[in-house]
């Protein structure tokens, strides 16, 4: 396939960015989207031009690093798929593809298509963990958990922190991400000790980072590559209200 790429180029956070058009030829439909970008960068290097910066790591749909906005959609046109899992067979010969970074004040652009998502890390540091004594591994049956609860916690834990929810939301809200992390621990007995402080601290950090408010549009869940449910936002709201009503209101 021969394609026209319209790629966002930005030298650094302080620089003004813009769309630059490139042509790529002989792209195999079996290539992943990131492999196609590798081909583009090899062409640029041969010409003596600077390659396009973009984030990636595992290329297996696990790490959430491949955060690209493709033709106006987070991770591209295929539902339930990260950018690295998107294959070029989803496009046609002669297509024009627009590639941009996530758009959110809390995700500043480092360079080109690479964004700083460390705001998510700081939210996790604020409370997305459990404090337990280290030592030998406990017996698997020591804390019995109903299968329904374990399944719901596991579904919330599948969040890969890619930021597609933020990029897809008109308010750049991080509620789906935060709710997945809160729900995962709130549903399990291991998370009960810090339950109230956790949700207060994580929501406070989310607001501090500059993410917008949730207005229940649902675009976050629609574009989430791993299918995190909006039900988690309802759980987060209940946890937060309960914490504010009964805790020491640490935040």
UniProtKB/TrEMBL annotation:
Signal peptide: none
Domain 4Fe-4S ferredoxin-type intervals: 150-180
Cofactor(s) for this UniProt protein: [3Fe-4S] cluster; [2Fe-2S] cluster
GO biological process, one term: respiratory electron transport chain
SUPFAM superfamilies referenced in this protein's UniProt entry, alphabetically: 2Fe-2S ferredoxin-like, alpha-helical ferredoxin
Tree of life domain: Bacteria
GO molecular function per UniProt: 2 iron, 2 sulfur cluster binding; electron transfer activity
Recorded family membership: Belongs to the succinate dehydrogenase/fumarate reductase iron-sulfur protein family.
Protein name as catalogued: Succinate dehydrogenase/fumarate reductase iron-sulfur subunit
Species: Hymenobacter lutimineralis
